[in-house]
# Entry
Amino acid sequence: MVRTEEMLLNVGPQHPSTHGVFRLVVKIDGEIIQEATPVIGYLHRGTEKLAEDLQYTQIIPYTDRMDYLSAMTNNYVICHAVETLMGLEVPEKAEYLRVMAMELGRIASHLVWFGTYLLDIGATSPFLFAFREREAIINLLNELSGARLTFNYMRVGGVKWDAPEGWIDKVREFIPYMRKELEGYHDLVTGNEIFLNRVKGVGTYTKEDALQYSLSGANLRCTGVNYDLRKEEPYSIYDRFDFDVPTEETGDAFARYQVRMAEMEESLKILEQAVEQFPEEGNILGKVPRVIRPPEGEVYVRIESPRGEIGCYIASDGQKEPYRLKFRRPSFYNLQILPKLLKGENMANLVVILGGIDIVLGEVDG
Amino acid sequence: MKGLAKGLTYTLKNMTREKATYHYPEEPLPLPDRFRGIQKFYPEKCIVCNQCVNICPTDCITLTGKKHPDPERKGRIIETYNINFEICILCDLCTEVCPTEAIVMTNNFELAEYSRDEFFKDLQWLDENDTNIRKEN
Ligand code: SF4
Ligand code: SF4
# Structure
């Protein structure tokens, strides 16, 4: 058998398939990956340390910049943590606005994943279609919050703005439109033979692996574990909606694709119900003291972001600023399984596997 | 092959659809009223209360005040007011806390400059930035 010499190859830090700055040092023997070592930290801004000098309201814009594809869930997790620590009531209307914003964000985030993932593995047009629909969502969120990505929309005890006039109707119109487009995506991609050949049976792991590596989100549900924090520990008003948690059994890249595609449909279901139940009257901000000063103590809350379980831990010593703040950032945890998955794989499968995990580097590095 | 053909049909159908792109910068980008762009500052409204400086998460506002020139009047008026747009993250918190709406957001977002020093905007520049001012603040 012909043997080639082993070679070290740097993938990244500037590589289109990493969607950020992420370096992967791979040791290859010919086309086969012997070993892969992720190198992270290029985007580290020290959010948690910075937060120790900031008041709670000032931390919210910083969370926008962690998982920048789904800033609404990040906004929510910090507000939810402070509210839990202080025992604050959030008005119903604010909760509905939050849920709608978060679910729209979830769809937008999955659309980015869908588009860029296919772009990575060689299909250009789905990217353009996905970004067209994402633009519709971004416009909706822009009208609501005044920004396209870094929303800074939620506040401790509620939200900053009420829905502008006609916004709810626009969301209502968006739902059937998005459903139709999703069908189109399935026509375009899901049945495509080339795509199926690239993703079926690639990057497979078992339920046990997933649990041992503490994976969450679609990366966990693709192995058949039915675990979604919106169902397990309903936060906000998620117990009022009827929706399913899509799971798949095979644990390969195609299963992850199917889970994410099905999740978009479930989010549309939640949106549909939220739009119907939306209370026209009511406050958008609860009774919040002017200076937010949570009592001494600790709190940990966790919610389901598009990428998995995002958690926020606050240790407060009764000051305006947290004594210590920690985010459980799902991308960081999900990334840990990558070296195991890449070992023994063909070089061409690297992007298929890396893309399938769906990481956001702002979140990995914190 | 069936899957490929189906996909091509979808692409062909999309060719006749309405365009999703804008002719930016020839045509201005339509933005909602709430959009957070570069701030407009009204020196005459400012009461030098320092709340905007205290809330700013990136510490990019610096201001100084002086005594009211009219000895009859109490209070202070603004002397200098600078925002460093190298680090301003347009988070909207300064406009949210300002009690007199002396600082408000506009829809202007074009902030490209040739040198870093030019991102340092002073009172006069912020006062003259008076187009597309946000209605709701
Ligand atoms: S928008 Fe935010 S970062 Fe910019 S000056 Fe105001 S408070 Fe500071
Ligand atoms: S908060 Fe408003 S009134 Fe107070 S110093 Fe700032 S701009 Fe002036």
User: Anything to note?
Assistant: Residues 44-365 of chain A form a domain with the Cytochrome-c3 Hydrogenase; chain B fold (CATH 1.10.645.10). Chain A has one domain: 44-365. Residues B 46-52, 63, 97-98, 100, 102-103 surround iron/sulfur cluster (ligand 2) (CB under 6 Å).
